[in-house]
Amino acid sequence: MSETVRTGGCQCGAVRFRIHGELGRASICHCRMCQKAFGGFFGPLVSAPEGGVEWTRGEPKYFQSSVNIDRGFCENCGTPLTYRYPGGLELAIGAFDERDDLAPQIQVNYASHIPWVTTIFDQPVRDTGEDAVKQEQIISFQHPDHDTEHWPAKGLHL
């Protein structure tokens, strides 16, 4: 039987990880600290297997957000990567290269949710033809969603 291995990293590619083993519960956290740490409406996280995280390029920088919690991020691009607490580690779902099967199974700290967050997907969807900047016009410096020996792209300094 082969081991489950997953990869991911930050937006600029300075920090990359590999996960060995099965991930735990995926969740979204509505607490104010997660809202601020992710710069979003909630924090999407998944539990890492104990001892199963390997940093393959760089390592996160950490900010201690409370007495028992610190949060890892890329010091180059600011991508949120980890939520570390006594006895465990959670990883940002959006940092994984493949995320389609990491749907949150539970919401935590729901009392702190932003009231309209429960209805945001009821809003109209704009046709991509109406977007101000077409995706094909964007020259992205974002790391690709896979490991590569040919990164960083020419001219980027990590």
Number of helices: 1
Q: Which strands sit side by side, in order, in the main sheet?
A: 6-7-8-9-4-3-10
Do you know the CATH topology? Metal Binding Protein, Guanine Nucleotide Exchange Factor, Chain A
- What percent of residues adopt helix (DSSP H or I)? under 10%
Overall geometry: globular
**Overall pLDDT score:** 89
Number of strands: 10
Structural class comes to mainly beta
Fraction of residues in β-strands: 25-35%
Instruction: Output the CATH class name.
Output: Mainly Beta
CATH-derived architecture = Beta Complex
Count of discrete domains: 1
Query: What is the straight-line distance between the termini?
Result: 37 Å
Polypeptide structure, described:
The structure is a single chain. This protein has 158 residues and is mainly beta. Helix content is 4%, strand content 29%. The chain has one domain (5-137): Metal Binding Protein, Guanine Nucleotide Exchange Factor, Chain A. The chain has one helix at 32-38, and strands at 5-9, 16-20, 26-29, 43-47, 53-57, 61-64, 70-73, 80-85, 88-92, 106-108. Strands 6-7-8-9-4-3-10 form a 7-stranded mixed sheet. It has a 3-stranded antiparallel sheet with strand order 1-2-5, with no helix packed on it. The longest helix is centred in the first third of the chain and has 7 residues, at 32-38. The chain is globular, with a radius of gyration of 17 Å.
In short:
The protein is mainly beta. It has one helix at 32-38, and strands spanning 5-9, 16-20, 26-29, 43-47, 53-57, 61-64, 70-73, 80-85, 88-92, 106-108.
